[in-house]
Fold this sequence. Notes:
The chain has one domain: Orthogonal Bundle (Arc Repressor Mutant, subunit A). The protein has 4 helices and 2 strands; from the N terminus they run H-E-H-H-E-H.
Amino acid sequence: MKHVTKFQNKVYEIVKKIPxxxxxxxxxxxxxxxxxxxxxxxxxxxxxxxxxxxxxxCHRVVRSDGSPGGYRKGIKKKxxxxxxxxxx
DNA sequence: AATGAGGCCCTAA
DNA sequence: ATTAGGGCCTCAT
Length: 88
């Protein structure tokens, strides 16, 4: 556990609250935090956190147009996880 | 409808 | 303190 800012902490809280079978866009998360213009920072936070944050379903966070976006562990893995969860 | 360019926010070096 | 980068978004062509 490294030093995390309040912003990242907020991101984690929101992303963690994402129920299974549902996905949220970076912008949506940013809006929940209170900074709808910080969608880039959200992705960045998840990106670095995904390395040691396994309790956060960052793969459930996709782009506004439905595109998977990106994934630190591999975009393929993200798509696979999404298909596995969205199947319900 | 698809592609190109610009802009905002955060973190690390 | 400043610069560059990033899992983006939106507007214009």
